[in-house]
Amino acid sequence: MAISTGDILGHTQVGVYLSVVDDVLFYPRSLDDASIEMLTQSFEMEMQPFLVGGSSLLGSLLSGNSKGIAVADIATEEDLDELTSFCDVVVLESGVNAAGNLIECNAYGAVVSPVVPSEGVEMISEVLGVDAMHSKVAGHDTVGSMLVANGNGVLAHPDITREEAEAIESVMKVPVMVGTVTFGSPFVGAGCASSDTHALVGSGSTGPELNRIEDALGLI
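Above: the chain sequence. Below: its structure as tokens.
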């Protein structure tokens, strides 16, 4: 199936713990064997156990594509060495560092929280090799919690404005659709992790929610 449901480390906020970067799925080192097997069979992509500065919140702290990865400045030198074996890395600093919460990207573009300074957006654009722009989503700064993007589409918080959606479609070059996860949560980025071919959504998500996610992310 192109979509599955489950929890990570006992939480429905699967997008907080997992980070899909191009064809690699980064998952917490403490994940149990059954969950690792579930992810392996579901995503059918390279699996990489990882921590950022000892934290399992990879979805909140990492964001990237095939050309580059943005990571929080709590990453250790060892973490950075490991990440640079995949691609170029940019470190978000000065307290504005939760890269996965503040950036949503695909292979074509990146949406960056307004709390990231303009020079940071320029660096993110350069390292990820895509156009990047400042935007809120539904009035929120934590754009990574409000969006799930892949190479086919973007799933967005239901309260996204038309102007925000049009700007995001322009920079990410894929259509935007709204939806919810885990029985009505609008924080779709926290409750879903997706590649171009598969998505994992937190348990408790309804059939209509899953159908909407499949449509939005082009998984059908």
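DSSP finds ten helices and 15 strands in the chain.
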